[in-house]
């Protein structure tokens, strides 16, 4: 990943890893604003052999963490690849991007972090409430019985017109 960060233009920022379980200062305020404004992100996981897997996800950024739910949209009958990958390798990345035909407006934020499944009922309730506030489609889904992924950011980088 170092090569990607090194190849980014001078307008980007890079934040080194932080210590502690609740990270609130990995993303800069402009990065946080950009992330919160996005409706979809791309989440990358990798299996135990390092084979990457990327899917678009709905998400919220809450209390310095990213949350994404496994929802009730039709899925294959087996346990989702992203969940199997997180069990084998909890390092993940999220990309939040904006494309515009005016290339002066292009931008992205990359967040790398540690993923885990939320087990605390209070934390899960707060994150699901935030997800339902952002995505009305979740109002009719029984998300409480499904896995919820939490990502603790460790690195952030950005490029373009945040």
Could you outline the blueprint of secondary structure elements for this entry?
Elements: H1 2-6, E1 14-15, H2 29-37, E2 41-46, E3 52-57, E4 60-62, E5 65-69, H3 81-88, E6 91-98, E7 107-117, H4 121-134, E8 148-160
Antiparallel strand pairs: 1-8, 2-3, 2-6, 4-5, 5-8, 6-7, 7-8
Question: Can you describe this structure?
Answer:
Strand 6 and strand 7 form a beta hairpin. The chain has a single domain (2-8, 23-160), classed as Pnp Oxidase, Chain A (Roll), CATH 2.30.110.10. Helices cover 22% and strands 33% of the residues. Strands 1, 2, 3, 4, 5, 6, 7 and 8 form an 8-stranded antiparallel beta sheet that branches. By secondary structure, it is of the alpha+beta class. The chain is built from 4 helices and 8 strands. Mean pLDDT is 86; it is low at 1-23.
């Amino acid at each position: 990943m170092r090569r990607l960060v090194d190849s980014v233009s001078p307008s980007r920022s890079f934040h080194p890893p932080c210590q502690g379980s609740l990270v609130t200062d990995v993303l800069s305020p402009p990065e946080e604003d950009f992330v919160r404004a996005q409706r979809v992100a791309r989440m990358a996981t990798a299996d135990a052999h390092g084979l990457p897997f990327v899917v678009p996800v709905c998400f919220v950024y809450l209390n310095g963490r990213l949350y994404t739910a496994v929802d009730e949209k039709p899925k294959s009958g087996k346990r989702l690849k992203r969940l199997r990958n997180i069990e084998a390798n909890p390092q993940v990345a999220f990309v939040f991007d904006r494309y515009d035909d005016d290339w002066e407006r292009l931008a992205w934020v990359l967040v790398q972090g540690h993923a885990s499944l939320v087990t605390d009922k209070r934390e899960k309730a707060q994150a699901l409430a935030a997800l339902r506030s952002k995505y009305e489609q979740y109002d009719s889904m029984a998300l409480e019985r499904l896995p919820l992924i939490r990502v603790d950011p460790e690195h952030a980088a950005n490029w373009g017109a945040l």
